[in-house]
Amino acid sequence: MHLNGRPTLQTAARALAPLVLFLVAIGVVGQWPTGAPPDAGAASPRALTGHDDGQRRKQVAPVPPAPAGSKWTGHAFDACRAPSQRVMNRWRTASPFTGVGIYLGGIHRACEQRHLTPRWVTRQLRTGWKLLPIWVGPQASCTGFDHRIVSRPGPRDRYDAARADGARQARRAAATARSLRLPRGELIFYDLEGFDTDSQRCRWSSLSFLEAWTNQLHRSGYRSGVYSHVNSGIALLSRTRATYSRPDAVWYAWIDRVGGIPREYVADPRFMRTSRVHQYALDTRVEFGGVEMDIDWNFVSLGATSRPSRPTSCEALAGRVPPRQVRAGERGPVVRAIQCLTSAGVLHPAKVSGQYDATTVRAVRRFQARQGLRPTGAVDRSTWTSLLARGHHPVLRKGSGGESVARLQRSLNAAVRARPLHVDGSFGQATSRVVARYRKHLGLKGKNIVTARVWTALARGKVLPGRR
Questions:
Q1: For residue 170, with 0-12 CB atoms within 10 Å meaning exposed, 13-18 middle and 19 or more buried, which class applies?
Q2: How many whole angstroms separate alpha carbon 223 and alpha carbon 219?
Q3: Cα–Cα distance between 453 and 442 in angstroms, integer?
Q4: How far is CA 374 from CA 94, 333, 379, in A?
């Protein structure tokens, strides 16, 4: 996440990773009894459950109903600043993302948000974007942030100061959400960066703060979410008793395979099976639709389930389908590859229909006309050759490697009637032989080098005679 004035959780997590692994190895971390809160019995239960049962029943508010469309599965990104409308429009079709994390406010919000207005929120919701609002207030008492949760236990170990601040932050977050026209019942996530769970007061004050955050958000008409690292805030929440007011969803940082839930930290994964966001990649610079941004990647499963997987790229999808004749009326992965390749970065594989409909026919015809091919609307060998050659066209020779070589290999597999090359991005002996054959067909002499003339021929769909 993105906080001001101090290192973020991601930076701290990288620095502490060797120590965490050491602590796991010697049994210090991840050894709390399953189903019991950390320090169970060592502190008053009021630290987790609030005041006595009669008072608590008055404090707990019912969960507001979720707005329509709040159940969804897919991928979301979060960036320090809410992007401009131009960027959101581009990424809506060109990126794999369905959702976006937005920083509503809080004392530790890192970036100004000049684009985040009621109109911006309304336009994103109207065009199909899912929003993940984030509030960045005081942090755990045992961290080095400028503003921290009060850790005094107070009378009868109730952590009243922490609870009061949790409720105050929830009221402010709800007021901001209303001012931005976020629908009632939306989730608002509290960003609680990683902290040292060895400190008893730090644990209890954080849990008391978050419980008050949840209860007050419910009273204010919104649902509660908590973002934290899986080995700190999320681990603690997973070990709370049934009487504790848990958040309605969690957003956990864990740099691992998509959707992974580490059991060494999470005692009760059931509460985050279908109401979770997994931040699985950090601080990556990516480009979609011609627009670059520094983002974090998240897999989202809120009230719905699907098999977690990383979003595929257009090139990766094209590499998994055979370059065969395809006509209108077909459907499936091969059509998705064609739709993606003909869109020139406008459509991401996750945003195409997979149905070879009239729109796809028109797109194929436009592509064929631009490349000097016969505009039939059907994808034959020549069209595949041209489609698969799209992209950067550097000079390649034996020993070259990378995505440009993989693009060359895919295009040659469509153009040359021969045993298909293994698309591995490595310009070896087999690739050299096929390049030699293709150069000979073009009337080129000399070494087996892929020059601009070779790329131009591939882009224009020049194929060797014969069928596969």
A1: buried
A2: 9
A3: 9
A4: 28, 24, 10
Instruction: Write out the two tokens for 441.
Output: 């067909």
The one-letter code for the residue type at 39 is D
Q: How many residues does the chain have?
A: 468
Helix locations, 232-309, DSSP H: 233-237
pLDDT tens, residue by residue, 273-329 = 779 999 999 999 999 989 999 999 999 999 877 788 889 888 889 888 989 999 999
| SS3 label, residue 419 | coil
User: Per residue in 102-134, pLDDT tens?
Assistant: 999 999 999 999 999 999 999 999 999 999 999
**Cα distance between residue 43 and residue 54, in whole Å:** 20
CA distance 415 to 20: 53
Q: Which spans in 343-380 are helix H?
A: 358-370
Residue 468 vs residues 3, 14, 281, 416, 441: alpha-carbon distances, Å? 57, 51, 41, 9, 17
* Tokens representing residue 135 in the block: 């509030």
Answer for the pair 191, 1: CB distance below 8 angstroms, yes or no.
yes
Four-residue CA torsion sign, 229, 231, 237, 238: positive
- Looking up tokens 């045993």 gives 419
**Per-residue tokens: 168:** 């105050």
Please give the Cα distance from 43 to 200 (Å, whole number). Answer: 8
pLDDT at site 344: 79
Helix, strand, or coil (residue 233): helix
Instruction: Give residue 189's Cα distance to chain centre.
Output: 16
- Cα 293 to its chain centre, rounded Å, is 13
In whole angstroms, give the CA distance from residue 430 to residue 421. 7
Q: Distance (Å, rounded) from C-alpha 113 to C-alpha 173? A: 15
Map residue 401 onto helix, strand or coil: strand
Dihedral sign for Cα atoms in the order 150, 152, 156, 157: positive
Q: Is 295 helix (H, G, I), strand (E, B) or coil?
A: strand
CA distance 279 to 78: 9
Q: Cα 412 to chain center, whole Å?
A: 34
Ramachandran area for residue 132 (φ above 0: left; ψ -120 to 50: alpha; else beta):
beta
Nearest in space to 202 (alpha carbons), one of 240, 146, 162, 259:
162
Angle at 64 between CA 59 and CA 66, to 5 degrees: 155
